[in-house]
UniProtKB/TrEMBL annotation:
UniProt name for this protein: Transcriptional regulator
CDD domains: HTH_XRE
Lineage of source species: Bacteria, Bacillati, Actinomycetota, Actinomycetes, Kitasatosporales
Domain HTH cro/C1-type: from-to ranges: 1-46
Pfam family, one: DUF5753
Superkingdom field: Bacteria
Low complexity bias (residue ranges): 265-276
Signal sequence region: none
Organism: Streptomyces hygroscopicus
Residue span of region Disordered: 256-276
């Protein structure tokens, strides 16, 4: 196959294929996977070996130090991404979670996981968040969050209040935008579930749509798929509250959680006094 034929098959630029073949560009696991598929490499052990070499050759592979991370392919994409567009219907965005909220989310999602595995996942999530605070090249994050994710009591009301206050603080960062999608907005294009659109600074790298699954994840790279999800996201952004309205909305929900926590604490104190 010529470089032109390979580029057409993968829907990338011919220059990208040329740079990969001439060693002028580092190769990602995704590149290896796609090239193996194009070249009809059917030996899974060989493909896995090549992908592992590609993973180890990239300096950004900090997650290797945490052992076997199930979603390491996604972390690789996220590490290379210039921007993320995220829709979250059930939980608050992982890159904007407090340690307490992250631990409560992961514990609830993996009820049978040992404590050391939960602690490892929390550490990985907090390490991922460094992209948001990177002073040289911060990740551009746009998040549309359903009201359900803000109302659901993960951990306890104190954790939720602190988490939502943190979400508001982070939304003031110039490269972070958070929009709330209240229940009152009715049906919307995101009702089928969570998704993330990753975009890269290199124009030859196609955008990727990430769909998280229980036992496996899905990565969509076809232009038509990316365009469909991008259009869905535009509709979500249009239906959601704007940035200022969202901060006010999230603050009000945070205050409700704080009141519940205070009421619960007062009730517990009253019961203790009665017992005495």
């Amino acid at each position: 196959m010529t470089a032109e034929e390979v580029a057409e098959e993968l829907m990338v630029s011919q220059s990208k294929i040329s740079r990969l073949e001439n060693g002028r560009r580092s190769i990602s696991q995704r590149d290896v996977r796609d090239l193996c598929r194009t070249y009809k490499v059917e030996d899974k052990a060989l493909v896995d070996s090549l992908m592992q070499m590609a993973k180890e050759s990239r300096q950004q592979g900090w997650w290797n130090a945490f052992g076997d991370v199930p979603y390491s392919v996604y972390i690789g994409f996220e590490t290379d991404a210039a921007s993320l567009r995220v829709y979250e219907p059930q939980v608050l965005p992982g890159l904007l979670q407090t340690p307490e909220y992250a631990e409560a989310v992961i514990s609830g999602a993996l009820p049978e996981a040992p404590q050391d595995q939960i602690a490892q996942r929390v550490q990985v999530r907090l390490r991922r968040q460094e992209r948001i605070t990177d002073p040289l090249s911060p990740l551009r994050l746009w998040a549309v969050v359903d009201e359900a994710a803000m109302r659901r009591v993960v951990g306890n009301s104190k954790i939720m209040s602190d988490q939502l206050d943190y979400l508001v603080r982070m939304s003031h960062e110039p490269h972070v935008t958070v929009q709330a999608l209240p229940f009152d907005m009715g049906s919307h294009p995101g009702m089928s579930g969570q998704f993330t659109i990753l975009e890269f600074s290199d124009e030859s790298d196609t955008s990727v749509v990430y769909l998280e699954g229980v036992t496996s994840d899905l990565y969509l790279e076809k232009l038509s798929d990316v365009q469909s999800y991008s259009m869905m996201y535009e509709h979500l952004r249009a239906q959601a509250l704007n940035a200022d309205q969202s901060r006010q909305f999230i603050t009000e929900v945070a205050q409700e959680h704080a009141r519940r926590h205070e009421e619960g604490a007062a009730g517990a104190a009253g019961e203790a006094d009665a017992a005495d």
